[in-house]
Amino acid sequence: MTDAGSLIDALADLLGADGVLRGEAELAGFIEDWRGRYRGAAVCVALPSSTGQVAAIVRLCAEHGVPVLPQGGNTSLCGGAVPAADGEPPVIVNLSRMRRIRRIDAANNSMEVEAGCVLATVQQAAAEVGRLYPISLGAEGSCQIGGTIATNAGGTGVLRYGNTRENVLGLEVVLPDGSIWNGLTALRKNNTGFDLKHLFIGAEGAMGIVTAAVLKLHPLPTRHAVAWFAPNDPAAAVRMLGMFQTACGAQLSAFEMIDAMQLELVIEHVPNRRNPLSGAHRWHGLVELADTGGGEELSQVLQHILEAATAEGLLEDAVIASSEAQRSTLWEIRHSVSEANKKAGIGLTTDCAVPVSAVPDFIEQASGAVRAIVPDLPVLVVAHLGDGNVHFIPFFSFDQWHRVPDQGALAAAIRRGVNDIASALGGTFSAEHGVGQTGLSEMARYKSAVELEMMRAVKRAFDPRHLFNPGRLLP
Fold it and tell me: What values do phi and psi take at 209, rounded to 5?
């Protein structure tokens, strides 16, 4: 049996007394997720301030045979950042002290940052030199770069800029044996063997701890045109997306869609949020065009397409932001959905992606699958429509959920019904949140035996003792 006390003492000698958290009160914010749905036990929380310290922590844990759980901002929606309730308690390696921006190379459109940097801080640092780091999501004020890399985070800019994977040039990683791989290249072209960084992006810390990254930057847009609109239905929204893509090309930066109930929850539970449109509408969309010039021209293009959509009977109403303040107000509505849902009830968030053309069928069929299990259950839809990622959220009031006798079984059955529809339409159950604890059982259902064995072989090569983030990603 592991002598936890001797391990904690060794970690304290390495990190200092304030670098190891161990009491119940100290651990509380690290062993439970931000929505209060997942909670486990931990030996302690280690707070390294350098890559060398991370490597030393890993070596100590390996010597004691104790699992390691890398942790960033703990904003996961699928239990990926906290210990499992039924697993062996790990040492949580929280990287929040590793938050230096090491260098910015504007000419090379790159920046090197430590994994504990908060996403919003990275965005601001890039903007100060006239550049854009394009990964943008509701938790950007608290999520950390290491976590976004571990989950291959998406967000609202994927349509134009791609997922995190497309915006990482190089990585620094501490491997399960405590060795350090320095792959912090800032090159766009490098054909000297395997592109190893991709083994760690989206791997949820199962094969190494990302401690730093070289991120790809882009020209900072200086002009924006944003509209909030009410399409007739999801099919009309898909048709409008095609119109924008044809007319605007790379200027189209975001195309989002939510349903009426989701908007109502945001307005009810988040201060200073209002419906941008007059009257009630079943569906709502948010579109943004961006460029490095031509602000007036962008607004004219936006207006022209909205008028064309109205003429084709696709659109019920729309409003165009006339200032940066109005643009921010519209985006605040979209980025408030998680906060609102946490306050309003229990949403069984799913993270499906299907081909864009299949989104309307997915919403209709998934709704039928859910209501075959719980008749008349409300469903929220929050979609990154531009890339086919639909957060389909069967939603319970707190009272309704507390009356469910076997919450785990019901949640699993509902998610399985939704995920089966996505799979049948050529989609996936995990688009941008990661697999975490929620999706672990789904891996065996939707991944082939051949694919799972290839993944396990890679895992064994890096972590033969299975000490890194066990109980995640691979069933």
Answer: -105, 115
Which of 140, 252, 250, 147 is closest to 201 using CA atoms?
A: 147
Query: Alpha-carbon distance 78 to 337, whole Å?
Result: 16
Q: Please tell me whether residue 81 adopts helix, strand or coil conformation.
A: coil
Instruction: Tally Cβ neighbours within 10 Å of residue 242.
Output: 11
Q: Would you mind telling me the total number of residues written for the chain in this entry?
A: 475
Q: Which amino acid is located at 233 in the chain?
A: D
Contact 151, 202 (CB under 8 A): yes
Can you give the pTM of this predicted structure?
A: 0.94
pLDDT, tens digit, for every residue of 390-422? 999 999 999 999 999 999 999 999 999 999 999
How many CA atoms does the CB half-sphere of 473 hold within 13 Å? Answer: 23
Question: SS3 for 392?
Answer: strand
So what's the pLDDT on residue 220? 97
Q: What is the DSSP letter of 406?
A: -
Mean pLDDT of the 37-57 span = 96
Q: Is the dihedral angle over the CA atoms 293, 297, 298, 301 positive or is it negative?
A: negative
In order, the DSSP letters of 213-253 are EEEE-EEPP-EEEEEEEEESSHHHHHHHHHHHHHHHGGGEE
301: which residues sit within 8 A by CB, 6+ positions away? 225, 247, 248, 251, 289
Q: Are the C-beta atoms of residues 256 and 156 closer than 8 Å to each other?
A: yes
Q: Looking at the predicted structure, is the pLDDT value of residue 1 above 50?
A: no
pLDDT tens by residue, 336-362: 999 999 999 999 999 999 999 999 999
Mind spelling out the 3-state secondary structure of 86-111? Answer: CCCCCEEEECCCCCCEEEEECCCCEE
What span, in angstroms and rounded, lies between the C-alpha atoms of 380 and 347? Answer: 8
